[in-house]
Amino acid sequence: MLPRGRALRALRLLRSGPGAARRTSCGAGQRAVGRGAALPAGPDLRHFLRGAAAEETPPEVPPGSFSGAGTVYLETYGCQMNVNDTEIAWAILQKHGYRRTKELDEADVVLLVTCSVREKAEQTIWNRLQHLKALKARRQQQAPGSPLRIGILGCMAERLKEKILLREKLVDVVAGPDAYRDLPRLLAVAETGQQAANVLLSLDETYADILPVQTSAGGTTAFVSIMRGCDNMCSYCIVPFTRGRERSRPIASILQEVRMLSDQGVKEVTLLGQNVNSFRDLSEVQFQSAATPVLSRGFSTVYKAKPGGLRFAHLLDQVSRIDPEMRIRFTSPHPKDFPDEVLQLIQERHNICKQLHLPAQSGSTRVLEAMRRGYTREAYLELVQHVRESIPGVSLSSDFIAGFCGETEEDHQQTVSLLQEVRYNVGFLFAYSRREKTRAYHRLQDDVPADVKQRRLQELIAVCREEAARANGAMVGQTQLVLVEGPSKRSPSELCGRNDSNIKVIFPDAETEDVAGCGALVRAQPGDYVLVKVTSASSQTLKGVLLCRTTLARAAASG
């Protein structure tokens, strides 16, 4: 048993059985009903940080402290941050003697890295647990002395905490996004027949000293986390409550990881963060009094300006210098944090992709205000125009929510018109899903019927696809530089890759001239750059003919 001194408010061992865990109460019974009723105060940053500064994060477990290492099976759900979290968790477990398997039946430990941004994402996990319940029961019959241990990691673990252990007794371990260092200890506790949980949010955890183990060995692309958490507190979003406050990795550790990936032959790195372009490295004392960058024109925040630190433009500059043959992308940014120096850098550097994600969420100023996005429709469109003037030929993608609280048909039509006016190459669209703890849950009424949400969502998807097809159609007849990823899933005689705009490109797997070498005939391999002349386009894919193999620098010089 652990000494009592290491017990924390948000870190506890939960013995099997409902009596051992403290239940939390939060539900519809606490919410005001009716126009005249007083509304409870909505949550703010203190809601999930209260007392955190006074608590002590448990120390990282030294390798070899626990002898229960076995074979682990990892499944990842949700966004790219969860892919990176999986790699971090695996790096920690590998260091402690665990082996990894791709076969579920071989595993001693099954860990699900989860998403909580929408109810559907959580339901997927509950359904998966039902399948694992049968597997765990079968294992218990076949090998009573070697039970299967199951863990829930990530955002769903942070949001529901011990409720997961109460609802599903088969779950042995619950670990939030800031608790992966504690996984070896939690799994060791689970070996004793107890349930274990650590859902403490940290003010400074970035896993800067842990080099993630790439989950796809030999891959051409990789994700690099540069910051964690979010301070924006958009009224619909659960992220601040599942991943905590914004904190950035030291630039030195990021550059070390990117250099390592370059040495491994990775040809494209995506810098990751919940609010990636709000990056602010405070690790170097001489930069702690640096001036605060100016927000995009017409944008505001719910928090005070944060002075000091090395900012995203500096990081992007340094990362792009490491390897001229490595493409650099970043996601997900907030539209408020696009100073001119970032846009200018994207335009100037041949290896920074001319593709930006500008999450709009709605085309209605009234809805944007209810969402607490910090801008109007007009300010957003002004930013889009400025981006396109600064980076000619830039491709844009965006996020939209259909059926947010109080959204009228007129509001919806304004979103439709925004999609038509901007003409994104890619769109990510979802129906609004109410999440506990958010300001919208406490202060707004989820009053758009489910069938109306779905109808509006389908209308947005149709318009987005139509406009994307037109935007991609403009590339027909053009020559695109494509990073080869591998064989096409639909045909073994074709290869698949992505262009600078992050659009999938399909082309024949045939011999081609190598203009970067001696002009010999070669076959393109994953990680190669090739030139493809586009012959047809849809809303999601380009098709073309292979022209030659080249390099990123040569293509930029000749373009």
Please supply descriptive tags for the structure shown above.
559 residues; alpha/beta; Rossmann fold; pyruvate-formate lyase- activating enzyme; OB fold (Dihydrolipoamide Acetyltransferase, E2P); 3 domains; 7-stranded mixed sheet; 5-stranded mixed barrel; globular; disordered N terminus
Q: How many strand segments?
A: 24
Computed CA radius of gyration, to the nearest angstrom = 24 Å
Structural class: alpha/beta
| Number of separate domains | 3
CATH class of the largest domain: Alpha Beta
Mean pLDDT, nearest integer? 87
Gap between N and C termini, in Å?
Answer: 65 Å
Give me the number of helical elements. 16
CATH fold title of the largest domain:
pyruvate-formate lyase- activating enzyme
Q: How many strands, which pairing sense, and closed or not: the largest β-sheet?
A: 7 strands, mixed
Tell me the helix content: 25-40%
Q: Strand content of the residues, in percent?
A: 15-25%
CATH architecture classification of the largest domain: Alpha-Beta Horseshoe
The strands making up the biggest β-sheet line up spatially as 1-7-6-5-4-2-3
Which outline best applies? Answer: globular
Q: For the record, what is the CATH homologous superfamily label of the largest domain? A: tm_1862 like domain
